[in-house]
Structures are given as structure tokens and as C-alpha cells.
Amino acid sequence: MGSKERRERIKQATREGILSGARQIAQAEGWSGLTIRKVAELIEYSPSMVYEYFASKEAILEALLEIGFQQLTNAMQQASAAHVDPYQRLQAIALAYWHFAQANPDLYQVMHGMDGVTVNPELRNQAAWPTCLLVEQDLQLLLIDEQVTSPNLREDSEILWAALHGIVSLALSQRLSQAEQIEARIQRTTQALLQGLLMTNS
């Protein structure tokens, strides 16, 4: 391995260490407790070293937001690809959405501006676009399969996402009773919404 490649690997490892440290602080104190100085202390670097990679706390949050949506989209794509039937695909990506949020509540908070996190809305929308598109594409497949045409496909997909986000957000904040039944609730909600959309557009 050449010196250039070695330097790049070190830089990448340092960047990942900073982001990992930020998540550890958030998990322990919430995102309001995150500061550059705390990250530097945790990973045993100087604050100036952290600033060489991220100009501010907000820059760290923006990087984590992008990583979160990349990981979420990948998980949903894998869940969708495991099924041929479009109805099952939508059910699968809904569960994948919940499983991601359950496993990464700190990232989910950053991605959706929870726990006092403030991130550029334009950047959030841009990062979320592949996820939105996946829901929209699978919904379109279902409508085609059912020989139904929707004049508001984008709106229909946003309704699905909004309902899913509502359940997941309430579950993460422990505001739902019988939290162990979240998967069943997501499946029931998805089923009801899909049936409603099919009836509305038929």
C-alpha cells in the first residue's frame, strides 16, 4: 500500500471515529449534550484536530443524517428485493423502516429533527429523496398490479411514509402502549392504508 492510500485510510478512520464518538455522546446524554470538545475528549484528540474534519457540530449532524438515510435506504431496498409481490414488498419495507429506527434511534433522531436536532431542511429533503422514491416506486408497482392509476402517486406515498413515521416516532419515545406489538401495528396500518389507497383510486 502506498503512502497516499495509507493517509487516506487514516483520514477515513479518523472521520469515522469522530462520528462514532458523537453518537456515543448522544446515546449517553442526548443530542443537546453534543459538543466538539466532548467528542475530542472521548476520542482523545484535540478539538483543533476534530475541526480539521468537521467545521462545527452542525457539520457532524449533517454527515450523520446522510449516513442514516443511506443505511435506511439500503435496508429498505434489500427488504423490497426479497419479494416479488408488490404488496409484500411494501409490507417488507415498512418493517425494515422500523427495524432500522429501533436499532439506530440516535441516527433516526438526527434524520428527522428529533431531540432538539436542527439540520438544514433542504439537506434533509435531499438525503431523504432515495427513501421517498423507493416507497413511491413500490407503490406504483402495486397500483399497476391491481390495474389502478393514481393521479396523486407522490401524495399517496407520502401518506404511507407519514403514517409509518408517526408510529415509529411514538414507539421510540415510548408513548405507545404494548410497545412489543409495534411490528403488528405497522403491518395493520400498512395494510389498511394500501387497501384504502386502492379503493380511492379504483
UniProtKB/TrEMBL annotation:
Entry annotated with the keyword Zinc-finger: no
InterPro entries xrefs: Homeodomain-like_sf (IPR009057), HTH-type_TetR-like_transc_reg (IPR050109), HTH_TetR (IPR001647), MT1864/Rv1816-like_C (IPR025996), Tet_transcr_reg_TetR-rel_C_sf (IPR036271)
Coiled-coil blocks: none
UniProt domain HTH tetR-type: residue ranges: 12-72
UniProt xrefs under PROSITE patterns: HTH_TETR_2
A Pfam family: TetR_C_33
UniProt keyword terms in alphabetical order: DNA-binding, Transcription, Transcription regulation
DNA-binding region: 35-54
Entry-linked PANTHER family: HTH-TYPE TRANSCRIPTIONAL REGULATOR BETI, HTH-TYPE TRANSCRIPTIONAL REGULATOR RUTR
Protein name: Nucleoid occlusion factor SlmA
Species per Swiss-Prot/TrEMBL record: Herpetosiphon gulosus
